[in-house]
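Appendix C: a fully annotated inverse folding record. The material below is reproduced so that readers can follow the format used throughout the book. The structure is listed first as tokens, followed by the designed sequence.
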């Protein structure tokens, strides 16, 4: 067991609080890009927040949008024309984008009001040539841009190399993290078995080959992991899986450990990334029909195949659904990881309950303390995302990231912590909202309504074929009854020592994929009062089959795998019905039974009190 956390924990290993943006650099960098575009006869250029794999995290040398605009959010596009420039972001980043860029040079634009294609159609001058990097846009994305440019009477032009690269004098080197084998005990299925299933799917779809452009698919298929991006153990690379025969994996050979190299080599070939283009051209020359993942495959891949005489087909990568349905080894690993993580959370929350009322703690102190507890397990590989730790009004920002400049003191009111860990046996994600001092009646009301929605998802039973969109309203109904709602999805899929945000399954108005046994999702309704406080409660859940006496349909429900008490000080029992109260009491009983033996001293005393029946 780890010792009690000191009042101030040491700096975290996996997170920093520096503010990487410098708005003063925006004007000279935009001016340099405009000069470069003029030399190429281009009226403008699109700069997405993307790498060649369309990943959630991009390696430092691919962060072109951040270099140019200063904006460091996880989604967005800049468009630079000769006389104007826009930074198009979704509603999560309205405030952040205005703070991080130079608004006298680049105008932040809300994507919900003016998406990228609409802005281009409205602002590109007639006859203007708009450049784009074909390695940073999907086939569908380019099709939208083509329509927009045509509407403006212009021309869309693929530009390589990317003009920003010549201007970026201190560009970081590409990542060189080792590629390691993922142990069979955690993977639960051999790479040979996975490849056989993939090739069977290609046969059914009558395609000749599949390009793995998503590094998550690459890692899952070949049972390998890497470290090329933050917080997700990914090796950045590609693979080509033919309908018959041996696949080829495209990874820098010097990054591959002997064990991983032997495992891949037993199944297929290993080639350097530069060889990808030639092999795609070879497929095209054979008139092959090649499946590309519509969500991650760069338009450049389709062009290479098509120009060589083949047929690129942008569609569904069959691996996505296979990866989403966890096998028993992966589920057992997730359960073990969450139990370990639950003990770390209990130690952290008991420390917070003791120290926060004294004053003097900040959001950064809390992030450092929680990471220290996870590291104290001895098994933490990384955090699964940058910890969201919001005090007071910062808790009302769902995707808040604390920096040295934004760091707030934890004062009486509400404190929200959304965090997770990457362990070799599983990926965790949990949110708890805590009261510091005496919460207001309104806070108790809102918290309890969020909890009611959270419990409704936890208790839900539903027939086979049901999608996340059909369940999403269960989480919102208690808030709707009070004229309230939240603007994010209720839950996302979660990987197995992979991305904490994994598709295609999700609990959301947009979640159309049917839920199937073995899928892991988050259950995280919330409520946010701008400028005041925010509330979110999150557990991870697993889809499982249920037996209902007398039923004549296949019925599913959810197994909860997160074990951590809710905040009693924020629960208003009068708002709960008997079934909700019984579920919460039973959940707390399980938390005490499972986590109690893993903690001691002050933490054990805190946990016992937190898990008492309502």
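Designed amino acids, in order:
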């Amino acid at each position: 067991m780890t010792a009690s956390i000191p009042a101030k924990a040491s700096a975290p290993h996996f997170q920093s609080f520096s503010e990487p943006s410098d708005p003063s650099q925006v004007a000279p960098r935009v001016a340099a890009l405009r000069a470069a575009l003029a030399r190429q006869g281009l009226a403008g250029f699109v700069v997405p927040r993307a790498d060649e794999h369309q990943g959630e995290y991009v390696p430092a040398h691919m962060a072109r949008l951040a270099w140019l605009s200063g904006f460091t959010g996880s989604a967005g596009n800049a468009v630079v024309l000769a006389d104007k420039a826009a930074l198009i972001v979704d509603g999560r980043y309205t405030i952040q984008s205005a703070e991080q860029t130079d608004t006298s040079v680049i105008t932040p634009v809300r994507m919900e009001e003016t998406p990228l294609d609409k802005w281009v159609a409205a602002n590109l001058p007639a006859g203007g040539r708009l450049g784009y990097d074909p390695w940073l846009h999907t086939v569908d994305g380019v099709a939208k841009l083509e329509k927009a440019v045509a509407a403006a009477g212009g021309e869309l032009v693929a530009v390589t190399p990317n003009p920003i690269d010549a201007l970026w004098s201190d560009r970081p080197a590409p990542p060189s993290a080792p590629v390691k084998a993922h142990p069979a005990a955690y993977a639960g299925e051999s790479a040979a078995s996975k490849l056989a299933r993939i090739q069977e799917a290609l046969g059914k779809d009558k395609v000749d080959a599949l390009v793995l452009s998503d590094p998550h698919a690459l890692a899952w298929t070949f049972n390998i992991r890497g470290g090329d991006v933050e917080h997700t153990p990914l090796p950045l690379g590609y693979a080509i899986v033919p309908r018959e025969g041996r696949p080829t994996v495209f990874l820098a050979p010097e990054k591959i450990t002997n064990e991983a190299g032997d495992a891949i080599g037993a199944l297929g070939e290993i080639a350097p990334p530069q060889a990808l283009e030639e092999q795609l051209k070879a497929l095209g020359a054979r008139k092959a029909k090649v499946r590309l993942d519509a969500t991650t495959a760069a338009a450049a891949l389709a062009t290479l195949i098509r120009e060589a005489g083949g047929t690129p087909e942008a569609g569904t990568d069959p691996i996505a659904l296979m990866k989403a349905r966890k096998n028993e080894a992966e589920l057992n690993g997730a359960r073990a990881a969450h139990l370990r993580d639950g003990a770390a959370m209990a130690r952290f929350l008991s420390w917070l309950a003791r120290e926060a009322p004294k004053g003097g703690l900040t959001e950064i102190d809390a992030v450092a303390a929680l990471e220290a507890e996870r590291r104290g397990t001895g098994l933490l590989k990384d955090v699964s995302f940058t910890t969201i730790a919001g005090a007071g009004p910062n808790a009302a920002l769902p995707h808040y990231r604390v920096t040295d400049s934004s760091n707030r003191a934890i004062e009486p009111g509400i404190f929200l912590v959304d965090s997770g860990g990457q362990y070799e046996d599983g990926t965790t994600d949990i949110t708890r909202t805590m009261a510091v001092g005496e919460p207001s009646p309104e806070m108790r009301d809102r918290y309890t309504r969020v909890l009611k929605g959270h419990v409704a998802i936890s208790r839900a039973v539903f027939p086979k074929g049901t999608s996340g969109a059909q369940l999403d309203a269960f989480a919102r109904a208690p808030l709707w009854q009070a004229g309230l709602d939240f603007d994010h999805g209720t839950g996302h899929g979660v990987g197995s020592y992979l991305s904490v945000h994994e598709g295609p399954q999700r609990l959301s108005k947009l979640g159309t994929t049917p839920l199937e046994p073995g899928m892991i999702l988050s259950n995280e309704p919330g409520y946010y009062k701008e400028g005041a406080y925010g509330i979110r409660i999150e557990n991870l859940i697993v889809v499982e089959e249920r037996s209902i006496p007398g039923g004549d349909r296949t019925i599913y429900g959810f197994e909860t795998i997160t074990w951590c008490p809710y905040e009693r000080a924020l629960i208003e029992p009068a708002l709960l019905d008997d079934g909700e109260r019984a579920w919460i009491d039973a959940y707390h009983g399980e938390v005490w039974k499972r986590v109690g033996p893993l903690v001691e001293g002050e933490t054990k005393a805190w946990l016992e009190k937190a898990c008492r029946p309502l």
